[in-house]
Design brief:
It comes from Ramazzottius varieornatus (Water bear). By secondary structure, this protein is an all-alpha fold. The protein has 21 helices and no strands. Helix 6 packs across helix 9, helix 9 runs parallel beside helix 11 and helix 14 runs antiparallel to helix 15. The longest helix is centred in the N-terminal third of the chain and has 27 residues.
């Protein structure tokens, strides 16, 4: 290196630019540092050189690391660049970064804040508009107008709102449901749901499947397959109420292979979760678990554990005024379907019927209760003799029913057990209670 080293920084720049010096620095595995005037030794001279125009942000070796440890502002800036660059969250040291860094902070901060302020306000207004729409036509009109700016929260809320409209507020006929399926605005909603499926949680996915089952959507359609696969992937993460409702929902798709596979896997996941998550002090949850056992082939030991927990609840409860006659009838039907009748629980049911009035019961529930009592007496004559308390309930139900419907059996009476609206409401209430 035929370079004269003077008492300045210009000579150090020439040394650092030589290939030999760069190779030596690479072999030492540390970044080369320029020789400032403040680092001058007696061998190089002690004269102070003027300010180097090459020093600063444009120096070619500054990107290899500063001589001193980086400051907090520099660390924050580098973290923003590494973690997201243009789309990262703005730093808290905005003024410091602007003054000390040669990088412009406007691409890191301004567009993000502008997008955030522009997107939050219309999102709230759109959600309020969806909630306030009182007809299915108004909701579909909102979808047609704002479909491009809807995120997965808006889409899920729209689906829930449409279900409430067509099931609770303004029930649709079968022809109107077919017209809704053929509506191009509903097709747009389904397309957006498929595109946003990776952001939708399993609870919202079951809400979507619930609407599709009510509308009798084709079981081999793309949207049904998409959300069935989404629910299938999350089966191990579901809670007990979620598994119960998922089992009811899968029975609405009897011709789908994914749903049939779920029906096989759900009892296994249910038995695994029940021992860990069952709440013996919650009667609605125990009834829901018993309903699941009546729908699936669960082991008898699992049924016995649920019935024992229910018996303990009734024995420890001092006030059962909230337990109505209709609740008692539905519970007896569930016990009969599970083949898990318990004498203590039957006494509680008989006490409830003695306090209440049979005339307040719905006709189909009374017929279902009467049919269950007759079946139990025929199957277990030794357990239910003529002087048993359940026989008095049978007589009261027989007297309260009209003559033409005493011996008739309505196949649609299963709605008392498997009503989708009430079952999903119970599922929501149990989930909200656990979150609190």
């Amino acid at each position: 290196m035929n370079v004269t080293i003077g008492a300045g920084v210009r000579g150090s720049y020439l040394i650092c630019s030589q290939p030999v010096f760069r190779q030596v620095c690479r072999s030492l595995r540390r970044p080369p540092r320029r020789l400032d005037a403040s680092l001058s030794s007696p061998r190089l001279g002690n004269s102070v050189a003027p300010e180097d125009p090459l020093a600063g942000d444009n120096f070619m070796f500054d990107d290899l690391g500063p001589a001193e440890p980086p400051t907090k502002s520099q660390k924050a800036q580098r973290r923003n660049i590494v973690e997201g660059g243009y789309f990262s969250r703005p730093s808290d040291h905005r003024s410091t970064l602007t003054e000390t860094s040669s990088f412009s902070t406007s691409p890191l901060e301004t567009p993000y804040r502008r997008r955030k302020e522009e997107n939050e306000r219309p999102s709230d207004l759109l959600m309020e508009s969806v909630r306030k729409s009182r007809s299915c036509e108004d909701t579909l009109r909102l979808v047609e107008r704002h479909e491009k700016i809807m995120n997965h929260h808006h889409l899920s809320r729209t689906v829930s709102h449409i279900f409430d409209q067509i099931m609770k507020w303004d029930p649709l006929s079968e022809e109107q449901k077919e017209d809704l399926l053929r509506d191009p605005r509903f097709a747009k909603l389904c397309t957006r749901l498929i595109r946003s499926s990776r952001f939708i949680n399993p609870n919202d996915a079951m809400e979507i499947l619930k609407l599709l089952s009510v509308l009798r959507a084709p079981q081999d359609s793309r949207i049904v397959q998409t959300f069935l696969h989404l629910v299938k992937e999350q089966i191990n993460e579901m809670s007990l109420p979620g598994l119960c409702y998922c089992g009811f929902l899968m029975k609405k798709f009897p011709e789908n292979k994914v749903a049939q596979a779920m029906l096989i896997a759900l009892p296994i996941a249910f038995e695994y979760r029940m021992h860990k998550e069952m709440d013996p002090k919650s009667l609605p949850e125990l009834r829901q678990l018993l309903r699941f056992c009546s729908m699936f082939g669960v082991r008898s030991s699992v049924k016995k554990e649920i019935v024992d927990a229910m018996r303990g609840y009734f024995l420890s409860s001092t006030n059962l005024k909230h337990f109505s006659v209709q609740d008692a009838a539905a519970l007896f039907i569930l016990l009969d379907q599970c083949n898990a009748l318990d004498e203590k629980i039957i006494d509680v049911i008989a006490d409830t019927f003695e306090r209440g009035s049979v005339t307040d019961m719905k006709t189909f529930l009374a017929k279902k209760m009467l049919s269950s009592i007759r079946y139990c007496r025929a199957k277990h004559p030794a357990d239910f003799p003529a002087n048993h308390r359940i026989c008095s309930i049978e007589k009261r139900l027989n007297d309260s029913l009209p003559t033409e419907s005493k011996d008739a059996f309505d196949d649609n009476c299963d709605d008392v057990v498997d009503d989708s609206v009430h079952l999903m409401d119970n599922y929501r209430s149990l989930e909200d209670k656990k979150k609190r």
